[in-house]
Specification:
By secondary structure, the protein is mostly beta strands. The protein is built from one helix and twelve strands, in the order ββββββββαββββ. The strands form four sheets. Strands 2-12-11-5-6 form a five-stranded mixed β-sheet, with no helix packed on it. Strands 1-3-8 form a three-stranded antiparallel β-sheet, with no helix packed on it. A two-stranded antiparallel ribbon has the order 4-7. The two termini are about 30 Å apart.
């Protein structure tokens, strides 16, 4: 939901706490002020790893400084198309997404790798500092792709736990 397009898309779920193997049931509702021509409408189940790291830099005068930075890496992404190119207005789209039963065992637990460009070659570069903290954020995301305009989006965070 954006500042200029408040509440144009709503995600409503039956529940917000899941375990691997569960089915996420809900609906995506469009509340557009006027009809919009869209390329596609989809809902996605995403896992994003958020690493908080300490970054140390040195200014051009040699003065060292450091700051905290959050590095976001999508570690799981499943997209479910709900509709194709059409004129959208105030429809409601039910959806179901099954969470894989081995999800938590198969997601990428390795720290993110940054690439270093040297003379036209890309070299993987592990983070020098280990993350101070790591959190995995699970969410359901709705997206209406609107050509030549700002896309309509909605996001709902959920909990996926093993216990």
């Amino acid at each position: 939901m954006g500042i200029f397009r408040k509440d144009q898309m709503t995600l409503q779920l039956e529940k917000y706490d899941f375990k691997p193997g569960d089915v996420i049931k809900g609906y995506l509702k469009l509340n557009l002020r006027k009809p919009l021509q869209g390329r596609k409408l989809l809902v996605a189940f995403r896992g994003t790893r958020v690493d908080t790291v300490m970054v140390r830099t040195t200014s051009s005068k040699g003065v060292p400084s450091s700051h905290m930075e959050k590095i976001k890496t999508v570690i799981y992404n499943f997209e479910l198309p709900l509709d194709e190119e059409a004129t959208y207005y105030t429809e409601m789209y039910p959806f179901e997404i099954k969470i894989p039963s081995d999800l938590l065992a198969t997601i990428d637990q390795k720290p993110p790798v940054h690439n270093l460009e040297i003379l036209g070659h890309t070299l993987p570069l592990q983070m020098v500092n280990a993350p101070l903290s790591t959190v995995i954020v699970w969410s359901i995301n709705g997206h209406l792709d609107v050509p030549l305009k700002i896309d309509v989006r909605a996001e709902q965070e959920i909990v996926v736990s093993s216990a």
